[in-house]
Amino acid sequence: MSSNGTPNGAASLPAPGLATAALHADHPNHLADDNYAVAPSISLSTTFRSPHPDSANAKLLEDVGKGEAEFDMQDPSFHIYSRYSQSTNIRCEKVLSQIMKSHALTYSSGISAAHAAVLHYAPSVIAIRKGYHGVHVSIKLYARGRNVKMIDLDDDYAAAVAEASDGSKGSDVDEGQGAVKRGGLLVWIETPLNPSGEARDLAKYVRKAKAVSGAHVVVDSTFAPPPLQDPFEQGADMVMHSGTKYFGGHSDLLCGVLAVKDKKEWTSLWTDRTYFGANLGSMEAYLLLRSLRTLTVRVQKQSRTATLLAAWLHSLSSNQDGQVAAEDEPFAGGKIVARTYHSSLQPRTDLDDLVTKGTAPEDPTFDPAQQMPGGHAPTFAFRTVKPEYATFIPHLTTYFTPATSLGGVESLLEHRCKSDPTEDARVVRVSVGLEEFEDLRADLRDAFSKVLQREGAK
């Protein structure tokens, strides 16, 4: 890509939109290669022939070793070893960087990306509330053997930093790798939230974090990939995705993504990844690149369908917050659904004790529409009246698959406590795929009828 974000050889064009960038950001310069493959070849090699001692590439490596030249690992002129760079992975990261308007790096899984983010900032205080349980376990692994203070998102950040063993000073990242401070406060915000699909007010928490010297904000935006949300617009320092989900989109690869605005910070992350060995495999990178081509059309349809489905389920609950169910709806009045959670249902004043128990509630006046201009979360949750309903409904459907994970082209239902024992036994998580809304609604209606028949037959 050229410096203005347009494909090579098209510098006269304006910067491309997200969907266009996803299709062309990694394409070679057609003026230099007028016969390149539209679907790129996959290279599975782990190592590459060394440059001849008399070659320009050998001279470049010699100059790099002397500190007289730089080797850009984001766009290398040649490859040495696949843990450093590999053509398929590089192409993936070019596309991700364009659509995330940042410098992006891929990892072997979402959890490995989350762990890399925490290690990068090496905080002594971490502010976090609920969200994906795997991230909490990963943070516990980071904290093992370290003096790390865990606080809630609404706690007093400055007081917590002052009480931490190393205060608020922190230490610089290695010389030449940027000006990031380590050892201070890390605010980890997951929005939309797993499993509810409800949004948190990013701007509010970023303002609160930035009032503390050296604080950093990482946003897990897995539930709202581009084009739904761009956390950098609210001031996030780093954006994390489990690329396994919407970036991959086909339930056939594991991937993690971290994105930062500063190239030196990207280089620091790249160095860490090289020696943690958390690289994305070449085959997974190829599948990811394939999937990124259709990201916008997939996510936009999934978002629209999820919003319709959440509204319908919300109309069935006993507490509808002003909504009115259709008169011919047999499951209205809370017969099956006690509550539906989704960013499209915010702001709402009917706060839920189950979600807010033990923590301060989210601001009931916060409207996620501005934060999520591209649409609402394609994954959300509903709470059934009885645990038995949540147990069996996923297994009584035809078009939904009872399975964990999310973001794929096929719709999933998950009895969430099976994966995360901390969740209420009545909660069902819904990952909306590419099926038609009417078919998914009919499938749920059928499952609701069957679960009531099953109950009556006992």
UniProtKB/TrEMBL annotation:
<dbReference type="GO" id="GO:0005737">
    <property type="term" value="C:cytoplasm"/>
</dbReference>
<dbReference type="InterPro" id="IPR054542">
    <property type="entry name" value="Cys_met_metab_PP"/>
</dbReference>
<dbReference type="GO" id="GO:0030170">
    <property type="term" value="F:pyridoxal phosphate binding"/>
</dbReference>
<dbReference type="Pfam" id="PF01053">
    <property type="entry name" value="Cys_Met_Meta_PP"/>
</dbReference>
<dbReference type="InterPro" id="IPR000277">
    <property type="entry name" value="Cys/Met-Metab_PyrdxlP-dep_enz"/>
</dbReference>
<protein>
    <recommendedName>
        <fullName>Cystathionine gamma-synthase</fullName>
    </recommendedName>
</protein>
<dbReference type="GO" id="GO:0019346">
    <property type="term" value="P:transsulfuration"/>
</dbReference>
<dbReference type="InterPro" id="IPR015421">
    <property type="entry name" value="PyrdxlP-dep_Trfase_major"/>
</dbReference>
<dbReference type="InterPro" id="IPR015422">
    <property type="entry name" value="PyrdxlP-dep_Trfase_small"/>
</dbReference>
<keyword id="KW-0663">Pyridoxal phosphate</keyword>
<dbReference type="GO" id="GO:0016846">
    <property type="term" value="F:carbon-sulfur lyase activity"/>
</dbReference>
<dbReference type="InterPro" id="IPR015424">
    <property type="entry name" value="PyrdxlP-dep_Trfase"/>
</dbReference>
<comment type="similarity">
    <text>Belongs to the trans-sulfuration enzymes family.</text>
</comment>
<feature type="modified residue" description="N6-(pyridoxal phosphate)lysine">
    <location>
        <position position="245"/>
    </location>
</feature>
